[in-house]
Amino acid sequence: MSFKIDEISSTEKKAFFDIEKDEVSKTYLSVVKLFQKDADLKGFRKGKVPLDVVESIYTDQIEEEVKTRIININLRTLALEKKINIVRTSNLEFKDFNKSNNFIFSFDFEFIPEIKLSNYNAMEVDKEVFSIDQKDIDKAIENLLINFASNEEVTKRKKIQKNDILSINFSGEVDGSVIKDLVRDNALIELGNDSLIPDIEKEIKTMKVGEEKVFDVTYPKDFPIDEAAGKKVTCKVFVDKIYKKVVPTLDDDFIQKLGIESKEKLEERVASDLERSSNEKSEASLRKNIGDKLIDDNNFEFPLSFLNDEEKRLENEYLARMNEKGVKIKEVDEKTRDLIKESAIRNVKLALIFAEISKNENITVDDQELEQVIASIAKSQNTTVSKVKKYYKDNNLMDDVRVKLTDEKVIRFLVSEAKIKEVKPKVTK
Hints:
Distance between the termini: 64 Å
Largest sheet: 6 strands, antiparallel
Strand content: 15-25%
Structural class: alpha+beta
Helix content: 40-55%
Radius of gyration: 32 Å
Shape: elongated
Number of strands: 12
Number of helices: 12
CATH architecture of the largest domain: Orthogonal Bundle
Number of domains: 3
CATH superfamily of the largest domain: Trigger factor, C-terminal domain
CATH class of the largest domain: Mainly Alpha
């Protein structure tokens, strides 16, 4: 066997192989014998069919198996000899196969280049610390009251006012064709909360209860419904009713409905919830900063297929979320695609960095830990462990679970090793 390697890029190469005919013949014979064991032909005992008969009957299958074996064996040999972490092959090419001749073939392969990490022990990172005061508690209680607000129909006026809640029927057409995903009957909309396209809200504000209005609006290019995005849409709106939001009073009756003893106890409960939420945000900021620093400090190339796979995964997740919200789109817009690509690059880089750290620090997940997670999932879904395990195995998800658990161990290790500086939260505009 002889081979040579040509470089395509920093993460992709082409390998050329020339397998000597003696090795080809040897592999061919061993495959024929394997087929012989399972051959069951009339007139012969099973496993006793002559080799030449087996060869004549299963010629194509035998040749395919021989080629597959030779390619896979030499692929592994290449990876071991050159110490290359091959992740994907493509563009397999070979000359006509003949068991009596050399077998010459080539393929492209992607690989993970050696990643030399900078010092990840004792990293200096910031952790945002969120303080809770009475204003935060009061605001949280105010939001709680709003969540329990009811809508009361307004019957004494027909003219629409700022911040009204309206019950409307809405439809949109492009070139005379109704866009099904824009049709809404008895839809409740709240003016002033940025839920509507500004030009549509502007038109509705001039209407009255019982009025129907038709007008044209050019939808934003990034609108999530493809049929309307960037197009002039003829909108038809009928205003059926006006509602106002009635917020309950923070009195003993309301507090009792919550199952809480007093206002003081409510404030304690809210403060505790805010504290827990603040701690979670602080932890999230720390983990993000650790990830950012790892990426900033470690510049390396990675296989393009990794990026393409992650982009596709994130894109499918986005489309699924939108469809769950009732927004049916077939593909993402350019702005969203750019954001997805940015996230995908970050995810791939961190995945490779975490994998390298887990290897360096011997951070692993054993079967018992995996079983515990599966049991936890089963409990949360109110089903059996065996059903969850079967689902994950059937869908090849067990390795994903193990990787996530390993990554979690890695991040906890990094947190334990980091030099953490507590800082005030950044003010977002």
